Input
Amino acid sequence: MDKRRPVVALTGATGYIGGNLLNQIQEKADVIALSRSADDKENTEHVTWRSCDFFSLKDAEKALEGADFAIYLIHSMKPSAKLTQASFEDMDVILADNFARAAKKQGIKQIIYLSGIIPEGEKKLSRHLKSRLEVEKVLKAYGTPVTTIRAGLIVGPSGSSFPILAKLAKRLPFMLLPKWTRTKTHPIALKDVLHSLRKTVGNKEVEHQSIDVGGPEVMSYKEMMIKTAEVMGRSPKVVDVPLMTVQLSRLWVMLVTGAPKEMVYPLVESLEHPMVAKNKVEGISDGKIPFKEAAKTALEEQENDSNMPAYLKPNPTGKDVRSVQRVMLPKGKNALWAGEEYLKWLATLAKPLLWTDIDNQKRGRIHLISKNNPLLELTFSPDESDEFRSLYRITGGAFASIKENSRGRIEFRQIPDTQECIIAIHEYEPALPWFIYRYTQANVHLLVMYLFKKYLEHLMKNDQHEEQAGDRKEIAEA
Output
């Protein structure tokens, strides 16, 4: 009797890493290929395509159903809605938390996560690396074994870092290279990264481990740019510039390459950190392909590939909004409390003009003067909530465009093992004309969230004063 083939859920299956990995994994496993745009894909004997939006916990649970292992290649540096009012760090937390919760529910045996090398001893990480580390912690928070593959610059035809580096090498007649270009890093060929990921799936020996991977050469970004130019048959003049700051470098890279600010800024900020593989595992960590060979292959594949680079693809169309803010909760409070407190607090925000009506089912209606037509109606969803995640569906109101399949919602989500809380609106479609909404209601929402954040900070200060007063009283009585 044939041994059952394992089932691997692969996120980002239409991306440049996921797409290449898909071809290799299906040789020995059945694959659930996950993408936001999988509806037009045809299933094969060993590949089942599923469309999935990992901002939705329900979608995540359906996506991972039937899988033994799951590979996490999700990153949110591109806008995910027509209007995205959110940092990539906060969106990445939501995506990782949904994935980890779904993995726990579906009995996933192992999560394999592709991250970046975290430099040892650095007290202040860049936003990008700090976020990658936070995602790793969230993925581990629900008990599913996680194996993290940490790579530096991946030399491949698409993605983010190498195509940007290649554009700099191609477009500049001479290179003004700031200090960060002398930072050491550990480039690795895409083929070697795929090998590392493939060797990790189902490997019990590396469960709960974070593994650095790198190619055969440790190099500076300056050396990589010079060698990339050589592969192109170019020899631009190189001038070291000691005064150019990271802030100026971000702008310079963005202007030369045409890559968007959302992608360039976090990546350039990370280049100040040395990223050299140290936590190694034999057979997984050590890439074999030299940089110039990897760069030549990547440039040839990029030239033959008619697909538009991911960062140049247009932003999402439609009329939906995603808005995410991070706040601190008072000690002992959780996400369930935060949702209830938010509705109560709204009732006090602009009395008597603005007020809320909350019924026994925790359905909140936000009114402007009149009782007849609420601005928004938020309906608590007990089946999708717990003490660390509280979800309200947007079910009506003059400000909301409610359709048969509307998925608009607001959620309060506590980051595991912290007092930080993510407050997020997803897939909200405003009833106002888009131009009016964009410059009125959207900005009012940001103001309201800012005021709620300040309100929570005020509560925390009061709690601290009460604790200090109690401590002084105890000391005095002693």
Observations:
- Residues 441-477 form the longest helix (37 residues).
- The chain has a mean pLDDT of 88.
- The first strand starts at residue 7 and ends at 10.
- The two ends are 76 Å apart (CA to CA).
